């Protein structure tokens, strides 16, 4: 196994990564109170009367952010126009806007795109703004603030929310298979035989004749209900909704460090054994093949149609799975792996400022407000995502509970420190493309697991 340091005695994965992130040259930031309830609006008289544009891609979050914008405008005198686009149109629109000089003043940024935007000079450096306004970076969930600092110590965003993954499950199907929620919360996984987790997946798989995957006579070529869904959107280099919770629970990590990974571990035995086991689920008929996954991309519709009993998905999907009444649904945490811990990718979004904005002061006031408890408490009460401010996260959990949704299987990863930060690196588009095509081929049975060693050589070569 490739560790992130030379010591054979390792702290938990997340603490290991945070220590590496902290080792970056991060500018000293004075502790302040802008996250404590004062969003700091109106601090720059020169920004009053300005008009700025803010882009989002999640329509579920737009009402909460419109509420934030209305309060911000009333207090600061800065007018904010919110525009929301679908995922693909959003990033295409940003690319076009950068090229034509018409990009939004402020936009929601994603870690997969952030290194590219930094290298292109499209993001405004917020380092001095954070220092001058005493923004309290300790107010956020541990690890999120470090993600938005480049290798030179320059900051390009303030955290807005975070996500982890867990398992949505059909409550009736689980009950019919003889399992309880308590059992689902303590499942274990290993790459040799899949452990009690694979036993559950097999029991939940049912063929067209009503025979379960763990019963004699099961017909894997004619499956009516798959025990576990395969997300066509998740076959990428981060594997957040597919293979990553299992690989990470072995103690494996993507590379040498994050942020700014430059040496990769896709050839490690822990990873390749995980992928071999993952493919075995399709070979046994417990999980759909790549063709089905790619045809539907998002497995939510298949789940709601009764074709899947379990779906590994992100906390941003709570409303989709828990907010409907057709399929009784609950959430279980990811299984405990060979490391003795469960695991989840820990992803966070931030709000960034376009370097070409005509209103840098006003844009900063808005970003600072978005990152404050004043706004993030509003987002928390909407019960859509988990805000980045720690106190706001707690309010979000309660808001979900008030809806009757127990979302603690997502937050247990944060509470127990079993999250692994998303890899952040240059050349991410190339890495992701190569990994995705390699994985699609492997899961289809067109190549063997040794292909990942060759993939790793190609990826590492990008950094030489």
What does this entry look like structurally?
This protein is an alpha/beta fold. It folds into two domains: 13-162 and 347-411, 3-Layer(aba) Sandwich (D-Maltodextrin-Binding Protein, domain 2), CATH 3.40.190.10; 165-345 and 424-461, D-Maltodextrin-Binding Protein, domain 2, CATH 3.40.190.10. Helix content is 38%, strand content 13%. The protein is built from 19 helices and twelve strands. The strands form two sheets. Strands 1, 2, 3, 4, 10, 11 and 12 form a seven-stranded mixed β-sheet that branches. α2 (62-76) crosses α14, α2 runs antiparallel to α15 and α18 packs antiparallel against α19 (451-461). It starts with 12 loop residues before the first helix and ends with a helix.
Tell me the layout of helices and strands.
Elements: H1 13-22, E1 51-56, H2 62-76, E2 79-84, H3 87-100, E3 106-109, H4 114-119, H5 127-132, E4 158-163, E5 165-170, H6 171-176, H7 181-184, H8 195-204, E6 206-207, E7 223-228, H9 244-248, H10 269-283, H11 290-296, H12 300-304, E8 308-314, H13 318-322, E9 329-332, E10 344-353, H14 360-370, H15 373-381, E11 386-387, H16 390-402, H17 408-416, E12 419-421, H18 428-443, H19 451-461
Parallel strand pairs: 1-2, 1-3, 7-8, 10-12
Antiparallel strand pairs: 3-10, 4-10, 4-11, 5-8, 5-9, 6-7
Helix pairs in contact: 2-14, 2-15, 15-16, 18-19
């Amino acid at each position: 196994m490739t560790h992130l340091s030379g010591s054979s005695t390792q702290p938990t994965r997340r603490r290991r990564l945070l220590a590496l992130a902290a080792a970056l040259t991060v500018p000293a930031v004075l502790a302040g109170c802008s996250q404590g309830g004062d969003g700091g609006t109106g601090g720059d008289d020169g920004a009053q009367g300005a008009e700025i544009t803010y882009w989002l891609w999640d329509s579920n979050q737009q009402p909460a952010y419109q509420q934030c914008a209305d309060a911000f405008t009333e207090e600061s005198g800065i007018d904010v126009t919110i525009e929301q686009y679908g995922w693909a149109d959003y990033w295409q629109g940003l690319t076009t806007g950068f090229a034509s000089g018409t990009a939004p003043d402020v936009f929601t940024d994603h870690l997969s795109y952030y290194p590219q935007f930094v290298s292109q000079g499209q993001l405004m450096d917020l380092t001095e703004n954070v220092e001058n306004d005493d923004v309290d970076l300790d107010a956020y969930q541990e690890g999120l603030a470090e993600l938005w600092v480049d290798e030179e110590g320059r900051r390009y965003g303030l955290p807005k929310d975070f996500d982890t993954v867990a398992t949505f499950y059909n409550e009736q199907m689980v009950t019919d298979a003889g399992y309880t929620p308590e059992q689902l919360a303590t499942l274990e996984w290993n790459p040799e035989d899949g452990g009690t987790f694979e036993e559950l997946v097999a029991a939940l798989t049912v063929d067209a004749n009503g025979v379960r995957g763990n019963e004699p006579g099961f017909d894997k070529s004619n499956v009516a209900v798959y025990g576990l869904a395969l997300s066509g959107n998740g076959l990428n280099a981060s594997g957040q909704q597919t293979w990553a919770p299992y690989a990470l629970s072995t103690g494996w990590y993507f590379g040498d460090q994050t942020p700014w990974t430059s040496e990769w571990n896709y050839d490690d035995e822990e990873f390749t054994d995980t992928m071999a086991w993952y493919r075995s689920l399709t070979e046994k008929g417990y999980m759909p093949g790549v063709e089905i996954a790619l045809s539907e991309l998002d497995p939510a519709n298949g789940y709601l149609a009764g074709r899947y009993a379990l779906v590994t998905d992100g906390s941003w999907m709570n409303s989709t799975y828990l907010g409907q009444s057709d399929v009784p649904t609950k959430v279980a945490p990811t299984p405990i792996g060979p490391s003795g811990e469960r695991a989840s990718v820990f992803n966070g979004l931030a709000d960034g400022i376009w370097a070409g904005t005509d209103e840098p002061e006003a844009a900063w006031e808005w970003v600072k407000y978005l990152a404050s408890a004043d706004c993030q408490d509003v987002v928390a009460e909407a019960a859509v995502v988990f805000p980045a401010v720690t106190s706001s996260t707690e309010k979000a959990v309660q808001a979900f509970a008030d809806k009757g949704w127990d979302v603690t299987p997502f937050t247990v990863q944060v509470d127990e420190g079993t999250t692994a930060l998303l890899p952040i690196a240059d050349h991410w588009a190339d890495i992701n493309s190569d990994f995705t095509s390699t994985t699609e081929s492997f899961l289809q049975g067109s190549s063997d697991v040794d292909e990942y060693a060759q993939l790793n050589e190609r990826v590492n070569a990008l950094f030489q």
